């Protein structure tokens, strides 16, 4: 277990300024000549407005980052996304729109009557697009988990316009991890409020002709898998206490101790739910690794956190900025991480009640048909370490998304602190690790070699901050995807705060 007593990870949660123009990075090693294009990343870059702090990791205002690769040279650029939340905060010099874990108080300059009536105008949902960037046709959008996505220019990082998904589909929010198929079709899952304060889920398909990956659902050529965890939004709380008593999104979540987890499978082409009820014990889930079909089974690989308590409870900035001993103490109380493989049988015979239905030779995962016709799933553990998470998984998505695969790349979290990059062979469970003292990387992005013959032929890109080790506090790291050895790094003279997700846009 690597220790971090110096607390350099706190620099991940510090406000930075945007850049007026790209800066040149200092390259050591040799950038592969075939690596041409841009790494686009999204994350929080403003952690307070004036004297008002944001409280949660998912509250800071969205900052878009770009590393450009051209003929062995690298430049770095960043700009804040001009969302309503950001523009209004800058104009009024206070937090105006309630974020995930931070309540926006009414304008203190207004009199008591106008403040009182402003409570009844309904919830203003944030458009703070800090989680991911993804393409729709020729266009690029930054997003969070609400119904607003923001069109951006991937070359200049300028904000073009806000798009409200509610105007096109019946959803109140959508995941920040859509799947983009090779023909450009975008799939996503959104939620909408149904009858009697229930929550329903809608599958959204955006065809490739309508020109303008954290996957929180699984997609194969024929099926869509959605994992329903025990953490739910209490709709009554969301609609009432929220506007009257100064609650935020975090206050509206509840954990159901007895529910466990349900997995729902829909047929992609017919758009209908399979009438098979898959159940397992409680866990939290942020990211799917991959999902594929094999011989009448669906194999679903997930980054789980064991138990029903909400992991987001541990991602308040006060926790993440604490000294190392305190960070460790908190992480020991939290749900524990484990990468798991679940196997879902698609053909069910009632005569098999009480039996394990999994017949695949390469997995120890089981699926037992119960007398109430539910199927109880037990996973195969593909990665586990005490308070060590394999998270923010990436694969060779273009060629192996939704298909049988061997390798996944992940960000290693040590008591919630990102301190290593990891490659995992999901078949043999062999791992390769890149790690350096006092260095804190981001989600690894796999970029395939243009003439690749093998699944792991390419490079892995990650933004690393290393506040204690020299004059340049951050760099882009390029690793050989086969053995996780360093190929090159491009150092910049500015700090780079935490980023969540992004993509490589080939030139």
Automatic annotation (TrEMBL):
Cofactor binding, note field: Binds 1 Fe(2+) ion per subunit.
Cofactor dependency: Fe(2+)
GO cellular component terms given for this protein: plasma membrane
Name of the gene this protein is made from: RPE65
Domain of life: Eukaryota
One Pfam family per UniProt: RPE65
GO MF terms, alphabetically ordered: all-trans-retinyl-ester hydrolase, 11-cis retinol forming activity; beta-carotene 15,15'-dioxygenase activity; metal ion binding; retinol isomerase activity
GO BP annotations listed: retinal metabolic process; visual perception; zeaxanthin biosynthetic process
Predominant place of localization: membrane
Catalytic activity: lutein = (3R,3'S)-zeaxanthin; all-trans-retinyl hexadecanoate + H2O = 11-cis-retinol + hexadecanoate + H(+); an all-trans-retinyl ester + H2O = 11-cis-retinol + a fatty acid + H(+)
Tagged with keyword Hydrolase: yes
Enzyme Commission number(s) of this protein: 3.1.1.64, 5.3.3.22
Binding site for Fe cation: 177, 287, 501
Membrane topology: Lipid-anchor
Alphabetical list of InterPro entries matching this protein: Carotenoid_Oase
Keyword vocabulary terms for this entry: Cell membrane, Hydrolase, Iron, Isomerase, Lipoprotein, Membrane, Metal-binding, Palmitate, Sensory transduction, Vision
Organism of origin: Meleagris gallopavo (Wild turkey)
Family: Belongs to the carotenoid oxygenase family.
Annotated protein name in UniProt: Retinoid isomerohydrolase
UniProt subcellular location: Cell membrane
């Amino acid at each position: 277990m690597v220790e971090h007593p110096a607390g350099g990870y706190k620099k991940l949660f510090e406000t930075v300024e945007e850049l007026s123009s790209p800066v040149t990075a200092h390259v050591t090693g040799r950038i592969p000549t075939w690596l041409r294009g841009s790494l686009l990343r999204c994350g929080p870059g403003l952690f307070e407005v004036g004297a008002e702090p944001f409280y949660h990791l998912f509250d800071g205002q969205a900052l878009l980052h770009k590393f450009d690769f051209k003929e062995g040279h690298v430049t770095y650029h960043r700009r804040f996304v001009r969302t309503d939340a950001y523009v209004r905060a800058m104009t009024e010099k206070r937090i105006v729109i309630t974020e995930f874990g931070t309540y926006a108080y009414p304008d203190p300059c207004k009199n008591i009557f106008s403040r009182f009536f402003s409570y009844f105008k309904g919830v203003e949902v944030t458009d703070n697009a800090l989680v991911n960037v993804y393409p729709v046709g020729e266009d690029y959008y930054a997003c969070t988990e609400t119904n607003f996505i923001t069109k951006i220019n991937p070359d200049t990082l300028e904000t073009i316009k806000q798009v409200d998904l509610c105007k096109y589909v019946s959803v109140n929010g959508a995941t920040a991890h859509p799947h983009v198929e090779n023909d450009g079709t975008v799939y996503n899952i959104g939620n909408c409020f149904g009858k009697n304060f229930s929550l329903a889920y809608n599958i959204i398909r955006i065809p490739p002709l309508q020109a303008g990956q954290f996957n929180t659902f699984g997609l194969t050529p024929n099926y869509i898998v959605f994992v329903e965890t025990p953490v739910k939004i209490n709709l009554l709380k969301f609609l009432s206490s929220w506007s009257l008593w100064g609650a935020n999104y975090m206050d509206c979540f509840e954990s159901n101790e007895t529910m466990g987890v349900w997995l729902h499978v829909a047929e992609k082409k017919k758009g209908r739910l399979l009438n098979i009820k898959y159940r397992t014990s409680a866990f939290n889930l942020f990211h799917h690794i991959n999902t594929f079909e094999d011989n009448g089974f669906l194999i679903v690989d997930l980054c789980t956190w064991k138990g029903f308590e909400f992991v987001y409870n541990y991602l308040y900035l006060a926790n993440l900025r604490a000294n190392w001993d305190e960070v460790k103490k908190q992480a020991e109380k939290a749900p524990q991480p484990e990468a798991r493989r679940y196997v879902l049988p698609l053909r069910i015979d009632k005569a098999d009640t009480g039996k394990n239905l999994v017949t695949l030779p390469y997995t120890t995962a089981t699926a037992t048909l119960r007398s109430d016709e539910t199927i109880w799933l037990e996973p195969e553990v593909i990665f586990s370490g005490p308070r060590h998470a394999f998270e923010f998984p990436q694969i060779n998505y273009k060629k192996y998304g939704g298909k049988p695969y061997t390798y996944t790349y992940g960000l290693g979290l040590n008591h919630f602190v990102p301190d290593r990059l990891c490659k995992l062979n999901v078949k043999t469970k062999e791992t390769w690790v890149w790690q350096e003292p006092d260095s804190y990387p981001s989600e690894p992005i796999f970029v395939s070699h243009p003439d690749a013959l093998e699944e792991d032929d390419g490079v892995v890109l990650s933004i690393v901050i290393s506040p204690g080790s020299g004059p340049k506090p951050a760099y882009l790291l390029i690793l050989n995807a086969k053995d996780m050895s360093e190929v090159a790094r491009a150092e910049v003279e500015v700090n780079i705060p935490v980023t969540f997700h992004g993509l490589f846009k080939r030139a």
